[in-house]
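hey so u asked for the seq, here:
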Amino acid sequence: MGTPRIQHLLILLVLGTSLLTLGLELYCQKGLSMTVEADPANMFNWTTEEVETCDKGALCQETILIIKAGTETAILATKGCIPEGEEAITIVQHSSPPGLIVTSYSNYCEDSFCNDKDSLSQFWEFASTVSTTLHCPTCVALGTCFSAPSLPCPNGTTRCYQGKLEITGGGIESSVEVKGYTATIGCRLMSGILAVGPMFVREACPHQLLTQPRKTENGATCLPIPVWGLQLLLPLLLPSFIHFS
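ran it, structure tokens below
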């Protein structure tokens, strides 16, 4: 009589351990999205029906990189398990309006299905006044822009930008070409931040010795000269200054 009772207790113990282990498993939404949208605030759906079971010690994550140029917006988004990290929500405005806009959002969380954001509406409050004095080729595309119409730039922007973002990680491996208007000097669309959640971003721009011509107050065109150019010109100009003095 004692042996069957012990067997029953062992079965209950095994079942209880299995249920406890099942209850500790972490489930996350899983999905990838790489697209270019004209109206992402209303048209982009970030939900997914795929589910991923995480390894022990992992977290759920959802990360999105939003790049807006003119009327088009590139979106790179990933959801799933992340093997390590700390629970946190991070929102970064890498490039702010007016002009080109780059925003990233990442959420690392510890509860099952906590990576459940479904839209981009909270990131979409952009407004600007268009200037008629500056025009820039403008586009954003996965891979390469096949057309870049010259569009009027918003007030507050001072120069044209051209660059490429190479993005890897979180199941994503893609490049995004970006052209447009900005107030930021140099190749700093990402403001020097190289990691966005599980994604790593490398920014590359064409090398230019001279910046764009600027208009002075009297309407004349002023071309900036590099320092090495001044060093070469100085010996040639000195005799003229000495002669006139």
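The chain has one domain: 24-209. The mean pLDDT is 80.
lmk if thats what u needed
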